[in-house]
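REQUEST ID: PR-0412
SUBMITTED BY: lab tech R.K.
PRIORITY: routine
TASK: structure prediction, single protein chain
INPUT:
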Amino acid sequence: MKLDSMGVLKELPRTNCKECGEPTCMAFAAKLLKGQRKLEECKPLFSEENAQRRKNLLAILQAG
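STATUS: complete
OUTPUT:
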């Protein structure tokens, strides 16, 4: 997995729901990498159906 915005975006639910306070999942991914947002702010990511995506993102962020 790549530690860049596109690599992170690939693992996000990509709903653009704005629940995190950002207009798009891409904006959230970029700020997540800069440490300006926390993974927990992405509410859809913490649903059961996104458990694997969440696991992948944690691995990506820990590797960076």
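NOTES: Residues 5-63 form a domain with the 3-methyladenine DNA Glycosylase II; Chain A, domain 3 fold (CATH 1.10.15.40).
REVIEWED BY: pending
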